Records
---
Amino acid sequence: MLTALLVMGGLAVGLGAVLGFAAQRFRVEGNPLVEKIDALLPQTQCGQCGYPGCRPYAQAIAEGRADINQCPPGGEEGIKQLAELLGVEPKPLNPEHGLPKPKAVAVIDESLCIGCTLCIQACPVDAIVGAAKQMHTVIAAECTGCELCLPPCPVDCIAMVPVPERIETWKWKYPVIPLRSAA
């Protein structure tokens, strides 16, 4: 019995080592361009671009299947950054995919919520918490403002509230030009 356990343990360790070596030896590197494009996208996972999230959209841009002007949450600034990264001319936002709006978060009127969980299922970033037949609430820090929770709500208890501009949410609208030191 002990011999069988030792043999099985030895086989497990040996096969684990072989698998670990194979994983390192035959590792497939991700496309670094996709990583850079994805880092520039707003990560709202809203699907307004026609893709199910920011990563698939970044993949499509890198492969030349999508244009850089399909992301309303990224706005003109996002398009400029993508154009600079890819070395192409910036284009105006394609209105087929929506118009840029101020950043907003979902807020649930808890007195109207019936606890149907449809908004929870629709949220791509799990920013809504609650249980069936119980009121739900939104974790504002996690909400990306994608508005995907609005259509499935049968009682229209969800509203999008603009995020107030505070020091934590404010962004410089113009590129920062480094100053040269007077030497």
---
Amino acid sequence: MSTSIQRYHIGPRLAEIVVHNNTVYLAGQIAESLDKDTRGQTEEVLASIDRLLNEVGSDRQKLLSVTIYLADMNDYDAMNEVWSAWVIKCHTPARATVEARLADPRYRVEMVVTAAL
């Protein structure tokens, strides 16, 4: 029995979305507006997550796991303020937040998401 794998927005290094066995995997999501502060970048990242999940028939209510990478852990409260307004009460995912040196020093936040279809 073979299981199908669907890939969306395929680039030379990654696919933005991979769906397998009714599970959605999103590549690390970053903001496009790198001049924004952590709050602004977090809002953009969460909007991107909404858009990508909706594209494949999922949504934030079906989040399973989110890993959040912050360039500076001092931005934790600012990120969490935006996150808390966005995440659906009683549908919160398993989550980890870590400080990491991100690929571009202008990135303030990156999120990696796993969700159900």
